[in-house]
Amino acid sequence: xxxxFYALILAGGSGERFWPLSRKATxxxxxxxxxxxxxxxxxxxxLDGFVPQENTLILTNHEQEAAIRALLPExxxxxxxxxxxxxxxxxxxxxxxxxxxxxxxxxxxxxLPADHRIANKAAFQADLQSxxxxxxTSGDLIAIGITPTWACPGFxxxxxxREIENFExxxxxxxREKPDPDLAETFVRSGNFYWNAGIFIWSxxxxxxxxxxxxxxxxxxxxxxxxxxxxxxxxxxxxxxLRKTSIDYAIMEKASRAIVKPARxxxxxxxxxxxxxxxxxxxxxxxxxNCPVTLEAASNNIVFSDSKLHIVLLxxxxxxxxxxxxATLVCHRHDVEKIKKLVQxxxxxxx
Length: 351
Known about the structure:
By secondary structure, the chain is an alpha/beta fold. The chain has 2 domains: about 5-260, Spore Coat Polysaccharide Biosynthesis Protein SpsA, Chain A; about 275-350, no CATH class. About 30% of the residues lie in helices and about 25% in strands. It is built from 11 helices and 16 strands. The chain has a 5-stranded mixed barrel with strand order 5-8-6-7-9. Strand 6 (about 155-165) and strand 7 (about 170-175) form a beta hairpin. Helix 3 (about 90-105) crosses helix 6, helix 6 (about 205-215) crosses helix 7 and helix 7 packs antiparallel against helix 8 (about 230-240).
């Protein structure tokens, strides 16, 4: 890929669903769930040989900035940016677009969440290359679509239309918000829907045009940032007043034409303890763990110990047990989606 290709990694999520392992200062993207590297490190390394480090921006927030810099000490200092406030993905991407446009107005860029699991680096880079070619030749906004493996109600969906010849991609009929379970089942059965992975590719010129057309308030911020001689000051003064909305709602759903490129790489959002369980050691009785366990009349449990303590389960089923130095979680595996709300009830020093 040429020096005209840039990456914007979004690494400011809170990750409450992985409490007590995740905290405000150490959310999911900073955790080592699959290897000796955190998810944000894995995301950066996945771009090696494809996007130069000097073209890779990492956008986080003040609570996590120090941890990101500590994990990536060799990353260019000015390429790690902290949002002054959490304003959702439209404002975050506008910030990145403004910085990249100031550096290279002819650039093509990819937007990547920092907390996904993608093991096949070669297939991932090949798909980005193909999507970048479409973006450069057509001027369209490209979204990466994931072929659904089940009717998940927790993802947004993309409905495909006419195939784009020679590119293994499709025009987008519409973006759909997170559906209820029955509607998700209808989407998957139709064979015309993809999960929205939150991975986007476009030329800087195309996304600037889209902001001007569909989100003029954000376009004005992008223009001010692009031409500012003191970008840190402008961010501190103006970013927190930007409206809080997603890039899907602000831009992608309103675009005159968007393209979905089906992913050929493996992908997992790994959004909960139950989703993580398949990557842990599989034990008798459909139990899964990352640490030594003794099991007696126990089945379908998920066990995770930060310090790899020995955990014993007797006569219990369908539990999630997570142990850290200062907190322990025990919940029914069907209640893991409630952990995010539960965190608000926990003493602040443990959040």
